[in-house]
Amino acid sequence: MQQYIDLEDIDNVDSLIEKAIVLKNNPFAHKELGKNKTIGMLFFNSSLRTRLSTQKAAQNLGMEVMIMNLNSDSWGLEFEDGTVMDACTAEHIKEAAAVISQYVDIIALRAFPTLSDKAKDEEEQIIKSFQKYASVPVVNMESATAHPLQALTDAITIKEHQTKERPKVVLTWAPHPRALPHAVPNSFAKMMQMIDVDFVITHPEGYELNPKITGDTPIVYNQDEALKNADFVYAKNWSSYNDYGQIKSTDKNWMITLEKIKQAKFMHCLPVRRNMIVADEVLDSNQSLVIQQANNRTYAAQAVLKEILEQRGK
Ligand code: CP
Predict the structure, then answer these.
(1) Spacing, Cα 184 to ligand 1 middle (Å)
(2) Which domains does the chain have, with CATH numbers?
(3) pTM higher than 0.70 for the full model?
């Protein structure tokens, strides 16, 4: 693996899932691989899981870790080419990415969307600029449209907990008071299309995701209908894609309850708003996999970093 910008960077997803599970059982087996190597973890946005699990993954591989919150700790970065930098930005990405590349062996980056400028968000200007001007591999820790480390984690978690060969997995929209990005549902949908599951998406009308991503996946507007016979229910809020970044509904009837999911396992990427997205009774039950999911963030990141380090060592 040369980089991990999106799920297309995975050569063989089933093999990568297996490798992550092997790492989970023996996390320090490759402590020498990352010796004298450094990962630079750069954040434009907040994080709990991604930050700590990726740091832990790198340390499990023997790497050194540098972390910077770019919005608060560094100079304001300019991403436009040819601009006259007479406003707020003090440093161009061309210099910044080249300089950072001299200090680290892998750059990991988190940069959320604007949710106001669809074209700009879909361009993925920030992560693509780092990719263009850095001379080291770039790992996506959630960009404007994708969260591939989360999606790999989700696939690992389903693999570990599935009790039938082809489980039914339902991605359901759930209410939230704020407008949220599409990165998690986008990457989850793409990942479910890559593994052997019966995958269905349910959401209120007006919350259709990018059709280029949902492709042939069945979309059912009746949540009860979609949840029938589900083995895994993955809840997530997202804002409207067509009326970009808008909140169309906060209909509490879409909140996940035990009555709705019956015997299914519950998944969410976290952080989650209790009794908004999902009822306490679900999160506090043994049907909830959210803590196990968060644990798997480490091994998803470790599998990805290991592949990149091995490729660089060739
Ligand atoms: N799931 C996830 O990415 O969590 P953080 O935003 O806390 O990193």
Answers:
(1) 10
(2) 7-146+297-312 (3.40.50.1370), 149-293 (3.40.50.1370)
(3) yes
